[in-house]
Write a structure and sequence with these properties.
Layout lengths: L1 E5 L8 H15 L4 E5 L5 H6 L2 H9 L5 H5 L4 E5 L3 E5 L10 E4 L2 E4 L19 H12 L4 E5 L6 H9 L2 E6 L3 H20 L5 E7 L7 H12 L16 H7 L11 H18 L4
Parallel strand pairs: 1-7, 1-8, 2-6, 2-7, 8-9
Antiparallel strand pairs: 3-4, 5-6
Helix pairs in contact: 1-10, 5-6
């Protein structure tokens, strides 16, 4: 089992779009059992796969979310017979992701993640790694994809700690291209602090308009950078307004009628499988 997190310190680069559709593509085209973990408190990845009605029903029925993974505090409860009581936090092996469809699973995000205290010394930042370690023993999944918030935070650190590799979606514009060097410093710091051996799976250019100067400048910047040289994916994710329109209805790229988008996500998926060394 491989675990990869999608990271960028800048929003609006289609990080979540790429993570969700990559999970969908690899489960469909390669028959991988894929688990998508929504670690972004905005839980946009969850909304790409679940309607509001479905999500509310899941919560009302006591379904698990990412909050259950990180909240290790005993919870007060009131029973009609026993009165006040305390519920122990959920253990990693008790978490149940949602089956979106065959081979594709989701551990949903939740806005309540903001309320948790992730200050140092508590060990909460290791709970995701402990969960991933549990999953690897069960051999239930071939690939785990973690969608992270677009800010340097304890949540991003937690994802990096739990991962074998990271992938960086970058919008071809000056600020985004420059920002990946700042991201590298964050990743280096976390790697050093936790003695990680993280692999860089690569950089994917997103919302790309190939026949523009800004695209060519971004390619030149990445390819000539000492650290990022050789890490840029050969295939990029094109700019298409249909993506934004369809996500609200939980329509994924392989479901849409745009051949360019389907080809791009399939080619990026094939390149990712090769880079991670996942056997089909």
């Amino acid at each position: 089992m491989k675990t990869i997190c999608f990271v960028n310190m800048k929003g609006g680069v289609s990080k979540t779009t790429l993570a969700v559709n990559m999970a969908d593509c690899l489960s469909r085209r390669y028959d991988f059992n894929v688990l998508l973990i929504d670690l972004d408190p905005q839980f946009n990845a969850t909304q790409c796969l679940m309607s509001g009605t479905t999500y509310k029903k899941h919560i009302d029925n006591g379904g698990h979310t990412i909050v259950d993974l990180f909240d290790d505090s005993p919870r007060p409860s009131v029973g009609s017979v026993r009165g006040p009581a305390t519920e122990e936090p959920i253990a990693p092996d008790e978490l149940e992701p949602i089956e979106i469809r065959e081979d594709l699973y989701l551990l949903p995000g939740a806005l309540e993640l903001y309320r948790l205290d992730m200050s140092g010394g508590q060990g909460r930042e290791l709970r995701l790694k402990n969960y991933i370690d549990h999953l690897s023993k069960s051999a239930e999944y071939d690939l785990v994809i973690i969608d992270t918030p677009p800010t340097p935070s304890a949540w991003m650190s937690s994802a990096l700690i739990a991962s074998d590799a990271f992938l960086v979606p970058v919008k071809p514009e000056p600020l985004s291209a420059t920002g990946i060097d700042l991201l590298r410093s964050v990743i280096n710091r976390v790697s050093k602090n936790y003695s990680l051996k993280l692999e860089c799976a690569g950089v994917v250019l997103t919302i790309a308009e190939e026949n523009t100067r800004v695209f060519r400048d971004a390619v030149k910047f990445i390819d000539s950078n000492p650290f990022w040289e050789g890490k840029r994916f050969n295939n990029h994710f094109p700019k298409k307004t249909i993506v934004a329109r369809s996500q609200g209805d939980q329509e994924l790229i392989l479901d849409c009628n745009n051949s360019d988008l389907k080809l791009s996500i399939t080619q990026i998926g094939a390149e990712l499988v090769d880079r991670l060394g996942i056997e089909e």
